[in-house]
Amino acid sequence: MTGLYRLAWSIGGPLYQFLYRLRFPGREQFPEGACIVCANHSSMKDPILLALAIGRREQPCFMAKAELFSRPCIGAILRGLGAFPVRRGEADVTAVKTSMQYLKSGRKLCIFPEGTRLTADDAASAKTGAVSLAARLHVPIVPVWIPREKRLFHRTVVRIGAPYCIDGARRGDLAPLAEELMERIYALGREDAACR
Prior knowledge:
single chain, alpha/beta, six-stranded mixed sheet
């Protein structure tokens, strides 16, 4: 764990807890060791909430759009916080290799399968990178729902679903697997709505 990440956690953790009254039902379902944590994406706050959901005991890795790394200072900060670049819309071999290295070393890799921030459910937009990595490396996926509405001083519930594995034999048709992943995430969102 980097010093910058410890500092960010020490400051950001209590601050976000105070501002958003955070709750993380299902947090105990995160497996030990490597897994791919996948969530819906609607806000720049989402990576922070996802890191807080995983907890302080380990530093997750984040796949983030390459454009964020174009400024050296910002890029250095992002790398210190556990992010690495991916070029969207193309086969980024470097990003895939980096992802595999992190997973093989037992780290948690965080990916937003939608690839961009969305304001409405759209499973068809899900990218296949996460399910492809999970099938290739035989690591579990953990679906997470992050509410789109995050109001100051109101309870914000980030729901963690049960981890599941993808049969490597299904790697030939990744699009349905990506849609299944997003459906698992959206199901957590429906569960959240029902609990209100």
